[in-house]
Amino acid sequence: MTEKAERCPWAETDPYSLAYHDERWCVPVHEDQELFAMLILEGLQAGLSWQLILKREEGIRSLTDNLNPETIARYTQEDEERLCKDPRMIRSKAKIHAMVTNAIAFLCVQKEWGSFDAYIWHFTDGNVIDHRLVHPQDMPAKDALSESVSTDLKRRGFRFTGPVITYSYLQAIGVINDHLITCPFHDHPLK
User: Fold this and answer.
1) Pseudo-torsion of CA 12, 14, 20, 21, nearest 10°?
2) For the chain, which end, N or C, has fewer CB atoms within 10 Å of the first or last residue's CB respectively?
3) pLDDT band at residue 4, thresholds of 50, 70 and 90?
4) d(C-alpha 7, C-alpha 100), whole Å
């Protein structure tokens, strides 16, 4: 008897989560601009709900040249203060400053590795890690991979990249596939 295919339960909470789950979550990303954007969005989420980030994503992207690392790396203190006052942004001085710090670190990684894509995917030799989860409670908050990546990101000057945020980031960019095996998006057609 075959189990009925059901989406991962968290996706059913609101339209933003549903669209994110169905179209982007755990789909491998190899474009540096989007790898940076997701790193920043995951950092902005720290201590907040992912739904809030998804609701504000369009505004955040419009305020930051689509989360362009070259643009953000040149932000001044005045730019940071302007962003901190805009209701479309997550108005945390520490997170906005980390966005600038991370843009600078991101550009350094690109220079060293040729692309951020080459850097981030080298941790798994370019392979997607599929945990083949059966139950939602089987999903860890972090693992050995996210701890290793987090340690290296921090060493390179990145902020808001602890192992839990890094685990979520690795899911967001498809390095980790944590769709439940019963989810119709487990074997996503965009992979």
Assistant:
1) -10
2) N
3) low
4) 36
pLDDT at 5: 63
Axis crossing angle, helix 93-113 with helix 32-45, rounded to the nearest 10: 150
Token pair belonging to 43: 């950092």
Model pLDDT for residues 159-184, shown as the tens digit of each residue: 999 999 999 999 999 999 999 999 99
pTM over 0.90: yes
Question: What whole-number distance in Å separates Cα of residue 103 and Cα of residue 67?
Answer: 9
Crossing angle between the packed helical segments 32-45 and 50-63, to the nearest 10 degrees? 130
**Catalytic site includes residue 42:** yes
Q: Which of 20, 25, 75, 167 is catalytic?
A: 20
* pLDDT digits 0-9 by tens, 54-106: 999 999 999 999 999 999 999 999 999 999 999 999 999 999 999 999 999 99
The residue from 25, 42, 75, 167 that is catalytic is 42
3-class SS shares of the chain: helix, strand, coil, % to 5? 55, 5, 40
User: For residue 187, how many other CB atoms are within 10 A of its CB?
Assistant: 11
Encoded tokens for 188? 């996503």
Task: Check 3, 6, 23, 50 and give the catalytic one.
Answer: 50
